[in-house]
Amino acid sequence: MNTAKALLIGCDHAGYQMKEVIKEYLTALGHAIEDVGTDSETSVDYPDYGNRLARQIVDGRYDRGILICGTGIGMSMVANRYPEIRAALCNDLFSAIMCRRHNDANVLVMGGRVIGTELAKEIVRAWLDTPFECGRHQNRLDKFCEM
User: Is 2 part of a structural domain of the chain?
Assistant: First the structure.
């Protein structure tokens, strides 16, 4: 696991409950967590929190982050507007493993209204524990990053 820097985590109101569960889970695994909000289930605009997280990764203050909204779609769209961000919407284990193994995803996105918290924990663990394979995947990633 990459423990050199704290993990960022952020959500909108629809992802708040799951974010709190994931924060507790990550802390129990020994990770330092930086929470960029939101801090309740009061309605907010998801782009505010997706941007906040993505900017800190782009600036080099953090290596990886986790975003949660109702479906995960909105947060994915926001984060992927930044060229340095490779956000992957993962609501299953296979996607979580493959987005790290083949795409070196640096932001995990989940849908708080799509999956349950136990599956979310498994997805987070798989995403954190899976290394990037490099090799032919690095060549593809280089082409992607040149766009």
Answer: no
Residue 108 lies in a domain: yes
What would the two tokens of residue 145 be? Answer: 């990053």
Distance separating the N- and C-terminal Cα atoms of the chain: 29
- Please give the positions annotated as active site: 69, 102
Q: pLDDT digit of tens for each residue in the chain (147 aa)?
A: 344 468 999 999 999 999 999 999 999 999 999 999 999 999 999 999 999 999 999 999 999 999 999 999 999 999 999 989 999 999 999 999 999 999 899 999 999 999 999 999 999 999 999 998 766 556 676 666 676
Tokens of 107: 């932001």
